[in-house]
Amino acid sequence: MWADDAYLSEKKDILVATHSSVWKPYSYLSDSGQPKGLLIDFWQAYAKYNHEPIQFVLLDWPETLSYMREGGNRVHAGLLRSPERERFLDFATPIFNINGSLYVQNQPGSTDTKPLAAGQVVGVVAESYESSFLAKHYPQVEQRSFVNNEDLFAAALEGEIQALVADSQVANFYFLTQGKPLAFVAEQVLYTRPIYAAVPKGNQALLDEIRVGISHIPSEELLRIKQKWINTERVEAYPDWLIPTIVIMVALSAVAYIFFLKRMVYKRTVALRQANARLREFANTDPLTQLLNRRGLEGYFSRLKPKLQRQQEMGLILIDLDHFKQVNDKYGHMQGDKVLVHLASYLKRVVKHGAVARLGGEEFCVLCPATSLDEMIDIANHIRCDVADSVFEFDGAEIRVTVSIGAIVSSDVTDDIASLDLDTLTHAADLLMYRAKDRGRNQVMLASSQSVTTPIAEA
Length: 459
Hints:
Number of domains: 4
Oligomer: single chain
Catalytic activity: 2 GTP = 3',3'-c-di-GMP + 2 diphosphate
Largest sheet: 6 strands, mixed
Helix content: 40-55%
Enzyme class: transferase
Protein name: diguanylate cyclase
Radius of gyration: 26 Å
Transmembrane segments: 241-260
Distance between the termini: 61 Å
C-alpha cells in the first residue's frame, strides 16, 4: 500500500490501483513488502502531479481482475485490452507498449520442433492476455496455466515446461535476475500492444478523471520512469555443466575427450555468441524506433573515430521535433509514437553513411564521417525540408511537424580529433539546436551562428 499523508489530510476518497504482485519489472512486492516497479512509479507520479492519494493492492493476476469486477473507486494499473475484459472494464489512456513473445528452452543440437504446433504444451499465466491470444490464434496448443509469473518462470527453469508465452521485458527480467539468460530464447514476437489503465465498467466520472490525470504527467517524467526500469545491462553467462562435462569426457578417454569437447564447445560457443549478440542489440537499441540509443551511439563513435580517413572529420546533426508535446496532447501518445517511428524510418533511409540514434523523447541524432561543414549542411537541410513538407496520416489524422537542427563538425570543437569525445560534440550541437529553437524553429543552426532555413530548391 502507498499513500501520501499530506494528501490524505484533504479527506478525499483514496484511489486504489491494483496489479500483479510478481510482474517484474512492472509491479511486484519487495522483500520488505513494499510495492515496486515501473507501473508503481507511474501511478506515484500520477498521485504527485494530480495531488490525489493512491493506494496499491498487489495480488495474483486472476485476483486483480476479480478485484476490478467488484467495482468502486479503483483502477487497474495497466493491462492489455481484449473483448473479454471490455465486458467489465472501461479502458482509459495507453501507458506503455509491451511485446508478447514465445520463449523456448535453449537446447543446442536438439531436433527442431514447432512449439505452437498441435499438442505442444505452452506455459501461460491464468486469465492473462497471453492465454486468450493463444486460445484465439493457436487453439490447437495445450496451455498449462500458472497463477502468476513467478510460478511460470520457476516451472520453466526447473524443466517442467519447454515453452512459454510472456511479456518480453518480464521474461528478460526474470531470466537475467535468476542468472540464467540463456536458459530460454525468444523464438517469436507474437504481438506488440499498449497496456491501458482501466476502471470498472460504467464509471464514466472516474474514467474521465484518470484520462485527464495521466495527461498531467510530464513526458520527461514518463521517459525517466521507462529508462529506470526498461534498460538492461549486458550479461555474460556460461553453462553450469560445461566444466563437469569436460572432466567426465577427459576421464573416459583422450580420443573421446577431443571429439566430444570440440563438438560441444563449438555448439555452445555459437549459442553463446548468438545470445550475447541479442543482449547487445537489446541494450544498444531504442525499443520504440529500433534506432541506436545513447549507449549504441557511443559504441559507434568509438569504432568510427580511428577509421576516419585523411581530410575527414566527425560530423554530428542533432534533430529535435518542434512543439511535439502539442502533438501528444492533441492526438494522443499513440499517434505521437507513430510520428517518431515514421521519422526514424525516414532517417535510416536518408542517412547512407553513418549512424542514426534516438537520444530520448523527440530528440534524434545523426553521426557520420564528413569532409566539410557544407556536406553536413546539405544533409541537415534535406532532413529539415523533407520533414516540413511531410504529412503524417494515422487513423484519419493528418499531422504536420517541423524540426530544429544543430549541425556541427569536429573542427568546430577541437583541432585534435584524437582527443574528441562524444559528449563534447553532442553538447555543442545541443546548444546550436536550442539556438535554432530560440530563433523561431524549423531551421538549421551552425557553429558560425549561421541559420539555414531555405528550401532545397533554393539552397
